[in-house]
Amino acid sequence: MKSFINVSDLGDLKQALQEAQEIKKDRYKLTPLGRNRTLLMIFFNNSLRTRLSTQKAAMNLGMNVIVLDVNQGAWKLETERGVIMDGDKSEHLLEAIPVMGCYCDIIAVRSFAGLKDRDYDYAETVVNQFIRYSGRPVVAMETATVHPLQAFADLITIEEYKRVERPKVVLTWAPHCRALPQAVPNSFAQWMLAANVDLVVTHPEGYELDPAFVENATIEYDQHKALEGADFVYAKNWSCPGVTRPEDYGKILCDDRSWTIDEEHMSWTNEARFMHCLPVRRGLIVTDEVIEGPNSIVIPEAANREISATVVLKHMLRELN
Ligand code: AN0
Ligand code: CP
C-alpha cells in the first residue's frame, strides 16, 4: 500500500475486517513486525483520537513514533508553489517533505481542508505532495477530503453491533456553529458503499456531497423519512461541499436546529445505535440524553480507531519488510 487514502487502498475489505477482529483478540501479536521502523506523524491541525490511537497502533506493532505539530515548534511552512516567501513562512513544504522522509519509514499526515478554494482542497494538494516527495508510504489522518482511519473504525464498529446481516445505516447532517470539512462524511459514504449495508444520506438542500464519494447512494432530504427503520444513525456536520453552487463552498447554509438528534429522532428508528466520530458539540449535533443513552456507541467507535490504524500500519509494514 503506497498510501492509505481510499477504501480501495486496503484491498479486500472483508479480509481487512477479519484482520481487525484478530488484532482485537491479541493486539500485540505482531510486535516484531515494526522493530526498528519509525512512524512520523505530522499534524497541521488539532487532534485527540487520531493522535493517541495511531500512536498506540504503531506501538502495538513495535514501531518507534515521532509526532510533529507543525504549528508548534517547527518552521512555518509555505504550501503553495511559485510564491515569493517574504512573509512569515520560513520553509517550503517541498524541502520539508523529503527531509521528513529521511527520518522515518512511514509518514502519517493530518491536514484539514482550508474550505476557501474547492479545487485546491479536492485536488488534495497537500497530501499529494507528501505522496510524491516523501519517498514513504503515506497514511491520511484526515486530509482535505477524506478520513479513512475513521471510516474503517466506523465500519468495524457497525460489524460488531449489527443485528441484521445488512443493516440500514443513515448518515445525517446536523447543525454546527463553525464551518467543518466534508472529509468525515465523504469517507463514511465511500466505505459504507463498499460494505454490506444499506446507506441513506440525509441533509438539507445545498449540502450534497461530492458524487465521487456518494456515488449512487440514496439521498433523502426529509430527515424523518430517512431515519425510519434505521439500525445505525451516524450524525455529522459538514459545510457546503459546493457541488451544485461552487461559490457556496465551505459556507454554512443552514442552522436548522430541528436536525439535532434528540430522543424523538431516535424514536423514529429501529432502536438504532447512535454514532459520531467525535469531537461532538452537545446541544447542536446531539442531545445529552442520546449521546449518554444506552444506544450510544461513540466510545467503542473511538476505541476502534486503534484497531483500524493497527490493520493499516500492519499492511504497510508487511510491504516494507
Ligand atoms: C473535524 C471535522 O469535522 O472534520 C475533525 C473530526 C474528526 N472536526 C472539527 O474540527 C470540530
Ligand atoms: N475522530 C477524530 O479523528 O478525532 P480527532 O480529531 O480528535 O483526532
Task: Please summarize what this structure is.
This protein has helices spanning 13-25, 49-60, 93-102, 118-122, 125-133, 148-161, 183-194, 211-214, 223-227, 263-267, 288-292, 298-320; strands spanning 3-4, 38-43, 64-69, 77-78, 91-92, 106-110, 138-140, 168-173, 198-202, 218-219, 232-236, 273-275. The protein has 321 residues and is an alpha/beta fold.
Describe this structure in words.
The chain is α/β, with parallel strands linked by helices. The chain folds into two domains: 3-146 and 305-320, Rossmann fold (3-Layer(aba) Sandwich), CATH 3.40.50.1370; 150-301, Aspartate/ornithine carbamoyltransferase (Rossmann fold). Helix content is 36%, strand content 15%. The chain is built from twelve helices and twelve strands. It has helices at 13-25, 49-60, 93-102, 118-122, 125-133, 148-161, 183-194, 211-214, 223-227, 263-267, 288-292, 298-320; strands at 3-4, 38-43, 64-69, 77-78, 91-92, 106-110, 138-140, 168-173, 198-202, 218-219, 232-236, 273-275. It has a five-stranded parallel β-sheet with strand order 1-7-6-2-3, with helices on both faces. Strands 10-9-8-11-12 form a five-stranded parallel β-sheet. Strand 11 (232-236), helix 10 and strand 12 form a beta-alpha-beta unit. The mean pLDDT is 97. N-acetyl-L-norvaline is lined by residues 142, 180-181, 183-184, 277, 279.
What structural keywords apply?
321 residues, alpha/beta, Rossmann fold, five-stranded parallel sheet, 15% strand, globular, binds phosphoric acid mono(formamide)ester
